[in-house]
Design brief:
This protein has 14 helices and no strands. The protein has about 400 residues and is mainly alpha-helical. The chain has 2 domains: about 10-195, Growth Hormone, Chain: A; about 205-405, Growth Hormone, Chain: A, CATH 1.20.1250.20. The relative contact order is 0.14.
Length: about 400
């Protein structure tokens, strides 16, 4: 199928790596920081060891706020200007963190980076949708996501290498360089995909109405909550991964390898989900995956008492890989389920669903992560609790009236 806009589109061989680069900036910005958390907290005077986690969770907090802003903004000013604005804010945040002399300044810079990186994260989807539809769009996004999956597997190793060579501040210099490349590539090569005559006024009222409508539709709010619930313990895992592997399990320089192997489990689940969802459907897969997360985690939590809360690394890795495959299935389906009854407000609805899910998960993830005490009790218990909460939210979404919009 040919592109939908009249502007000449980039060749697929160039367009796919461009959008993959844009949508991977948020994952790179979180995962590449992991090896440096202890050094940052120590140098900038964080009050407690667990406070280092805020370097990760503050990025997600900013992302949640930015998602609600940049989707509707791109409908008003165009796709490219919205991404430019976000990248400029992201780069400013990188400079704040790069030159931070206090831990508070570091966190402020990270929130700014999160708000800014929301633009390429959200608006890129609209940029693709403007140009393609049907199977062509699905193929392009699948190829771009296949590239995106590689980012969490290499980002911690990249961050660790940069830190060894030039210190942790150089990681932010790398972010600046990559964002500059993305901005220049987008500006010079990608045509604008939203013509001026198709743009709509930016309306805070439209965002508010979308929030209210989502809250009134069981299917939408139930699946949005489910997405937030299952992401909460995952945020806690991301923010405490360096402590888990390098402090509790003393993996040292091998930390990126362990992290990468678990990221690949999620990637494998995303690929497998693409096959299974056509046969079994999204709801069946989500309910099965959330049930497995809860039951596996409850069993693992009980079993952890035999090891004083610190199971052998090989056993903990098997547990996490199993849970993360279920999480990958949930990630692949929950957003689509939440959007099913929102086709009439698809653009702003997608931004609000993503933002609400993030703003649910981040505070909960912070709460879980702050309970890290050198054992795995809190993390495993959180996956059990929020796996069950995810299943309950899905059941709520399916209850009487769940697929019917309030009128």
């Amino acid at each position: 199928m040919s592109p939908r806009t009249s502007s000449p589109a980039l060749r697929t061989a160039e367009f796919i790596p461009l959008i993959a680069l844009l949508i991977s900036l948020d994952a790179l910005s979180s995962d590449a920081m992991l090896p440096a958390l202890a050094a940052i907290a120590g140098e900038l005077g964080a009050a407690r060891a667990n406070d280092a986690q805020f370097v990760i969770t503050s990025l997600f907090l900013g992302l949640g706020m930015g998602q609600m802003l940049f989707g509707p903004l791109s409908d008003r000013i165009g796709r490219k200007p919205a991404i430019y604005t976000g990248l400029a804010l992201f780069m400013t945040g990188c400079l704040v963190s790069l030159f931070a002399s206090s831990f508070q300044a570091m966190i402020a810079g990270r929130v700014m980076q999160g708000i800014g990186v929301a633009a390429p994260h959200v608006v890129t989807m609209a940029l693709v949708r403007d140009q393609y539809e049907g199977r062509t769009m699905a193929r392009l996004m699948s190829l771009a996501l296949a590239v995106f999956i590689l980012v969490p597997t290499i980002a911690p190793a990249l961050g660790q290498l940069i830190m060894w060579l030039a210190g942790w501040r150089a990681i932010f210099t790398t972010f600046l360089a990559i964002a500059t490349v993305a901005l220049a590539w987008l500006a010079l090569r990608q045509p604008e995909t939203l013509p001026a005559e198709q743009r709509r006024p930016f309306s805070p009222g439209a965002i508010a109405r979308a929030v209210v409508e989502i809250l009134r539709i069981r299917a939408a709010i139930g699946c949005t909550l489910a997405s937030g619930f299952i992401f909460a313990p995952f945020v806690a895992y991301l923010s405490s991964a360096q402590q888990i592997f390098q402090q509790a399990y003393d993996t040292g320089a091998l930390f990126p390898a362990y992290f990468a192997s678990l990221s690949l489990a999620i990637g494998a689940a995303l690929l497998l989900n693409g096959r299974l969802v056509m046969r079994l459907g999204m709801r069946v897969l989500c309910k099965a995956a959330s049930t497995l997360v809860a039951t596996l985690s409850l069993s693992a939590w009980v079993g952890a008492f035999a090891f004083d809360g610190l199971p052998p690394l090989w056993l903990f890795m098997i547990y996490l890989a199993s849970v993360f495959m279920c999480v990958g299935v949930l990630f692949g389906n929950l957003a689509a389920l939440a959007m099913e009854p929102l086709g009439h407000i698809a653009g702003v609805g997608a931004a609000v669903v993503a933002s609400l899910a993030t703003l649910v998960s981040v505070p909960l993830g912070i709460l879980i992560g702050q309970h890290f005490d050198g054992t795995m009790y809190a993390l495993i218990a959180a996956f059990a609790l929020f796996g069950a909460a995810t299943h309950a939210a899905l059941r709520f979404a399916e209850s009487t009236g769940g697929a019917r919009s309030a009128r």
